[in-house]
Amino acid sequence: MENNSLISVLMPAYNVEKYISQAINSVLSQSYSNFELLIADDGSIDGTVRVIEGFTDSRIKLFHNNKNFGHVYTKNKLLSKASGDFITFLDADDFSSPDRLYRMLHEFLQHPELGLCSSNVVRVFGETYNYLPNLPESCEKIRIAGESAFPAPSAVMISKDIYLRIGGYRNFFDGMCYEDHDWISRIIEMFQSKIINHHLYFYRFNPTSIGNVKFDSRKLAARDIVNYLKQQRAVYGEDDLQAGRIDALSILYQKKLSYYSHKKWKYYIELRRLTELKSKVRFLIWARMFMFYPFSLATYKSLIRIVIPVRSKLECLLREGCIAFKSKHKLFTSSIQKSNRQ
């Protein structure tokens, strides 16, 4: 590959003293060497800054926050500092395969129409590596799958031009999570995307990470908001945030938050957070949920996730079937609409 494009790797960090050395080393050992690694410590209170400052590679650039501003602010700060022709991420408690940058850049050079590219993911539970089955690869299937196509949103790479056109994360999601899925969904709606069938990103289950600490009613409510905004764009061409209707969206978020704050969802949240535990332990938690809420839909949604674990081969096969059905339904609907117009 003769192209020598600069790749910006963005790494927000918060209280990851235990893991960040492996994350940084996995970037420095990439087979493709023309990159810059932008790291922003977000006001850590452990030894994270000391570990970062122990690295002397000139490709590392530091942008520390003097206090904890949160994930949205920190990632937007790094995005604004990126000088690369292409931009990707690496969470400070994850790590990359040595050929990740090379393979991702290769896809952009082979397919200039691409706006976003991602890869398959390995989930890391302690010393256990779970290589996820194939994710949807084509742009059409990715759009249908939505958030389920991106089990690790930081695995994506975009061109700098896409960032300049889309912008960064939306501040509405600050402190709520799912800001990355909102960002990705807006990109894949407008531009071509692809997921390559190589396990290039290692996503660590870290009990203290943002995604797990904040996996509560806020995250479930934020997920619903992202889907609501997607539906608005599909129907009206813009969503509440793009139209400046922040107050209306805030009211909806509070309603969702109130709904998911019910006690029955606490069991559901606990089961989702403890995905690394054996089914027997999780089933005991579910049994308590069944005792108190035997007629709740959430009870049986939780049971499905115990019998069919997230990202298992069976779950992926079922999702593939669902995507195929939706694709055929979309073609069928389009053909009917075309016939009616004629």
Strand content: 15-25%
The CATH level-2 architecture of the largest domain is identified as Alpha-Beta Complex
Taking the alpha carbons of the first and last residues, their distance comes to 49 Å
Count of separate structural domains:
2
Overall pLDDT score:
86
Q: Catalogue the unreliable spans.
A: 210-214
**Net shape:** globular
Number of helices: 14
Number of strands: 9
CATH domain topology of the largest domain: Spore Coat Polysaccharide Biosynthesis Protein SpsA, Chain A
Q: Radius of gyration, Cα only, in angstroms?
A: 21 Å
Order of helices and strands: EHEHEHEEHEEHEHHEHHHHHHH
- Reading off the top of the CATH hierarchy, the class of the largest domain is best stated as Alpha Beta
The structure class reads: alpha/beta
The CATH superfamily label of the largest domain reads Spore Coat Polysaccharide Biosynthesis Protein SpsA, Chain A
- The amount of helix comes to 40-55%
Question: Mind summarizing the main beta sheet?
Answer: 9 strands, mixed
Key words describing this protein structure:
342 residues; Spore Coat Polysaccharide Biosynthesis Protein SpsA, Chain A; 49% helix; nine-stranded mixed beta sheet
Explained architecture:
The protein has 342 residues and is of the alpha/beta class. It has 2 domains: 7-213, Spore Coat Polysaccharide Biosynthesis Protein SpsA, Chain A (Alpha-Beta Complex); 217-261. It is 49% helix and 16% strand. Strands 1, 2, 3, 4, 5, 6, 7, 8 and 9 form a 9-stranded mixed β-sheet that branches. Helix 7 packs parallel to helix 9. The longest helix is centred in the last third of the chain and has 29 residues, at 313-341. The termini are far apart. Residues 210-214 have low confidence and may be disordered.
